[in-house]
Write a structure and sequence with these properties.
Blueprint: H1 2-6, H2 8-17, H3 44-48, E1 69-70, E2 83-90, E3 102-104, E4 107-111, E5 117-121, E6 127-131, E7 153-155, E8 158-162, E9 167-172, E10 178-183, E11 198-200, E12 203-206, E13 218-223, E14 229-234, H4 247-253, E15 273-276, E16 281-285, H5 294-297, E17 309-314, E18 320-325, E19 341-347, E20 350-358, E21 363-368, E22 374-379, E23 386-389, E24 396-398, E25 410-413, E26 427-429, E27 434-441, E28 444-447, H6 470-474, E29 483-490, E30 495-499, E31 510-513, E32 517-521, E33 526-531, E34 537-542, E35 552-556, E36 559-566, E37 580-586, H7 613-626, H8 628-631, H9 653-660, H10 679-697
Parallel strand pairs: 1-31
Antiparallel strand pairs: 2-37, 3-4, 4-5, 5-6, 7-8, 8-9, 9-10, 11-12, 12-13, 13-14, 15-16, 16-17, 17-18, 19-20, 20-21, 21-22, 23-24, 25-28, 26-27, 27-29, 29-30, 31-32, 32-33, 33-34, 35-36, 36-37
Helix pairs in contact: 7-10, 9-10
Bound molecules: calcium ion.
Length: 705
């Protein structure tokens, strides 16, 4: 009778698990006596010995250490030229894809944009089940960088996903049916979840995003079985008059000034989390403070713990163990949230258990995993905010020329807010001893806003507008948009071993293998295999769309495979987005259908200018706070986020207001901004866009961007 209550999904799953001769019934949740496994049968014992099952990919980073290294060597530097598509699956969303698929006992599990989860038969590509958390479209406007999701976790027969609107959901890995669901954040605040949950000995660890908008960051641990909240650690102090949650918050509060809690503080934990089983520590990185500009966030200065920091907690209790602040008093949007990785390295003759990160601020860090001691830190791109790291304390020397805390001071700082490397996963190959990461040369001109008015549901930087010609005036050659390359970094000697040419503006996550390979996608739509020792390009695949996610690798029926999500979100690239799961193997012969021709160039046909300069300026301010993250021309990815200079709705105040205020396009992810903008402000935004469109009209068509 269990079959009837479980329905068709279970029957379809039964086909996939026939390879393991498993008799499937919905009530079956333990490994059968014959040794066949239940779906997503990831246990503590199996995770501990993950290297004894090199064909599996248990966590987003394969093992607890998250090195994103596959011990499989069937696909290697000699034969990678024969790598071909085994199968592909079109995804039902064309937003950004950032997740790494898990492979467990014949099934691929992945999340996609809008926090959907899908399970595929890894042999045939058949969809076994899918789960749609039905994130309301209006939540798209609560995050900075598209409705992405960076992956799922598997544990004891369940798949865990953190949804964009902040629910942590446990799914039955056999059917995709929710087992429990908890809200991890406050829906009255502009908070979202995009990171992959991590499992720490039966606890599901998850953080959230939102420091750009103004929230108080924290990380939470839930019981994997029941969803019960076990502990929560705030990353920045709250209102001191209400008392502190713990001694760590009391210590942190001494490093803040003003009334920071009214803006939330920031320090959100939106990506890098890793668990060391032996030390029983959970590590995570924290984001920027709110607003970016410290002069407005913490008048008079201060380090502002624990923003832009790495924090280690006791996994059982959530109690503070150590921290390292990468950027004291951070003021340039240098989140410390990039992926973290654990490894055993021999350094100066000593075997060290280390934690590593290629940080957004441009430094590559190696810490002692137990104590947080900075073993070494070295910049891997051009860095101007700091002149080095004090070798005794690990504290960076801040370059006063990079600070913009005096009124009217304008600085050009490297890296820019895009970062030297953000969420894009790096990988470590123990055979070469090298870490492979995207490394981006960027810069940003910054100046403080003379006054600060906090916008409770808008982006809050506290920045003013630097003069448009500041680069020319100063003769600065710093790149104004990202120049991404793949680098191989020796973490023991802290030096670059090889680099590729610039291959896009952002660069993708990486996978490395025992076959001596590194795989990385590009925002220009190629998926490339490089020789891990030399950086020589050996193979590439035209993905028909930008690729920013990192791949995984697995073995099935004696064949090594590579699995990858293709499809970009906020990558600035002018072609249509096509989101797919791509699976490769040697001799694979599947082919993608021909790419449709690129969409025709939109017509630039704005209505006449009628607004005053004051109205246009008001529109500029509101656009910058509420619209620019997705729609800022020319950065907008036109196939996902329209370049509004071309929008036909500019011709009608009512139509424009119906979209922005009434949510006429809510189903597409364009939320109503009625709680953030008045009708007058929306009309000012329209006037500003009309002005921008006319500025563009004045430029010859071939030079327009
Ligand atoms: Ca940030």
């Amino acid at each position: 009778m269990q079959y009837e209550t479980c329905g068709r999904a279970a029957a379809r799953v039964a086909v996939a698990f026939a390879i393991a001769a498993l008799s499937v019934g919905c009530g079956v949740s333990e490994s059968s006596a014959s040794g066949a496994r239940r779906p997503a049968d990831v246990t503590a014992a199996r995770l501990s010995k993950a290297d004894s099952e090199p064909g599996q990919w248990f966590t987003v980073g394969r093992t607890l250490d998250e090195q994103r290294y596959s011990p499989l060597a069937q696909i290697n530097t000699e034969n990678v030229g024969k790598l071909g598509l085994a199968w592909y699956a079109d995804l039902d969303t064309n937003r950004g894809q950032e997740a790494t698929p898990l492979f467990i006992d014949g099934v691929l599990y992945t999340s996609t944009a809008w926090s959907k989860v899908k399970a595929f038969d890894a042999k045939t590509g058949a969809l076994l089940w899918e789960y749609d958390p039905k994130v309301p479209g209006e939540f798209a406007g609560r995050g900075c960088c598209d409705v992405v999701n960076r992956g799922v976790a598997a544990w004891n027969g369940r798949i865990y996903v953190a949804t964009y609107d902040g629910r942590l959901v446990a799914l039955d890995a056999r059917t995709g049916t929710p087992v429990w669901e908890v809200l991890t954040l406050d829906h009255d605040k502009p908070v979202t979840s995009t990171g992959a949950p991590r499992i720490a000995n039966g606890k599901v660890i998850i953080g959230n995003a939102g420091a750009e908008f103004g929230v108080r960051g924290y990380v939470s641990a839930f019981d994997a079985e029941t969803g019960k909240l076990l502990w929560r650690f705030y990353t920045v102090p709250g209102d001191p008059s209400k008392g502190f949650e713990n001694e760590a918050m009391e210590m942190a509060a001494k490093t803040w000034n003003g009334r920071w809690w009214e803006f939330g503080g920031g320090g959100t934990v939106w990506d890098g989390i890793v668990y060391d089983e032996g030390l029983n520590l959970v590590y995570f990185g924290t984001g920027n403070g709110t607003p970016w500009n410290r002069a407005h966030r913490s008048p008079g200065g201060g380090d502002n713990l624990f923003i832009a920091s790495i924090v280690a907690l006791d996994a059982d209790t959530g109690e503070y163990v150590w921290h390292y602040q990468q950027v004291p008093g951070e003021t340039w949007d240098y989140d410390s949230t990039s992926p973290l990785m654990l490894a055993d390295l021999e350094i100066e003759g000593r075997k060290r258990r280390v934690l590593m990160q290629a940080a957004k601020n441009g430094y590559f860090y190696v810490w002692d995993a137990k104590t947080g001691e900075v073993i070494s830190a070295k910049n891997y791109v051009t860095v101007t905010w700091s002149t080095g790291i004090d070798p005794k304390t690990g504290r960076p020397y801040i370059n006063p020329d990079a600070l913009y805390d005096e009124p009217g001071k304008v600085v050009i700082v490297q890296p820019g807010a895009q970062g030297a490397h953000s969420w894009h996963p790096m990988s470590f190959n123990p055979l070469t001893g090298l870490v492979y990461t995207t490394a981006v040369e960027t810069s940003m001109a910054m100046t403080g806003a003379p006054e600060y008015r906090h916008q409770p549901m808008g982006a809050n930087t506290g920045l003013g507008r630097p003069p448009a010609n500041v680069y020319e005036e100063r003769g600065s050659k710093a790149p104004r948009q990202g120049q991404a390359r793949l680098i191989a970094w020796d973490p023991v000697n802290q030096r670059e071993v090889w680099r590729t040419d610039v291959n896009g503006r952002i660069g993708g996550g990486t996978l490395t293998t025992a076959g001596g390979l590194v795989f990385q996608g590009t925002d220009a739509g190629r998926f490339v295999a490089y020789d891990a020792r030399t950086g020589r390009e050996l193979w590439s695949f035209a993905a028909q769309t930008g690729v920013v996610a990192a791949a995984s690798s697995f073995e099935l029926d004696g064949e090594q495979h590579i699995a990858l999500l293709a499809g970009y979100g906020l990558v600035r690239y002018g072609q249509s987005n096509r989101s797919r799961l791509l699976v490769f193997k040697l001799g694979g012969t599947a082919e993608l259908p021909p790419a449709p021709p690129p969409p025709p160039a939109p017509e630039l046909n704005p209505p006449p200018r009628t607004a005053t300069a004051e109205v246009v300026e008001l529109g500029r301010q509101k656009f910058t706070s509420h619209c620019a993250m997705c729609h800022d021309p020319p950065a907008a990815n036109r196939s996902v986020f329209p370049d509004l200079r071309y929008a036909p709705s500019l011709h009608g105040a009512e139509v424009f207001a119906s979209i922005v205020l009434d949510g006429a396009l809510q189903a597409n992810g364009m939320a109503s901004f009625r709680d953030r903008l008045t009708a007058e402000e929306v009309e000012a935004i329209r006037a500003y866009l009309i002005e921008r469109a006319h500025q563009l009209l004045a430029i010859p068509p071939e030079q327009r961007r």
